[in-house]
Amino acid sequence: MPAYARVMLGSKPYRALAHSGTRPIELEAQQVKLSAAHLARYCELCAVPPSAGLPAAYLHVVAMPMHMQLFIAKDFPVKVLGLIHLRNTIRVMREIELHRPLRLSIFFDTIRLTDFGQEYDFTTRYEQDGEVVWEEISTMFARGEAVPKEGSKRPVIERSMHPSSGVSTTVLEVPKKIGWRYARVSGDVNPIHLTTRMAKVFGFKQAVAHGMWSLGRCLSAAAAQLPQAPMQIDTQFKLPVYIPSQALARIWSTDDGVDISMCTTRGDRLHLAMQVRRL
């Protein structure tokens, strides 16, 4: 909460100033110990099956306090409340031993100009016994005018939301209080997820579910079909998921993994597209 107060009251711009440059930022926590109680709360929120093991997206939640320290660092160029979570890549390198400490590091050094605005990448990495066991690249996006580099386009990594065969579907409930409940577990108290009034300030018609909750919920729905580590999960966030509502998870196997889409119950609008692949 103190970090969010600094974000709200800070004077950073909503887009990086032209030719402002980028200074690398690296943060580190040498001893991160996982909490069984906290993990259980996350599993309940995302409906993780008991046999699923450590959820692939859980360590993003554990790192959230460090993410907030990154966002309020002097050299982070923009106000995070103006950013949209555009893409996410998670690599689970091997099974993580839950009772042994982890080393956590966060790194930021990338701003890209695109035809649509500015993109910012930051990397989250966990090591155990000196070996990288989990890594994530989050891409945030700021709308607005930009002067893209020649040939710059927003990357498109997407599969059809209407696979031809072998698809299974699950209706996902988006409960009324899911924004508040996920905020308490994750520490992400961005006001767009908490009240319709605050969501409208940022251009949404009502409160919006956390993108990482949607990601985690979809992985839970596909738990039986996910490959074993090492694996990579590429997610592209599309339209917001409003609270409360229902959504449809479509899941279909591929030669080397599984594809997942989350869309409206009518199947006509896409919330997210996800590709899970063996590494």
TrEMBL record:
InterPro entries: HotDog_dom_sf, MaoC-like_dom. SUPFAM superfamilies: Thioesterase/thiol ester dehydrase-isomerase (SSF54637). Residues 170-255 form the MaoC-like domain. It comes from the Bacteria. This is MaoC-like domain-containing protein. It comes from Steroidobacter denitrificans. The lineage of its organism: Bacteria, Pseudomonadati, Pseudomonadota, Gammaproteobacteria, Steroidobacterales.
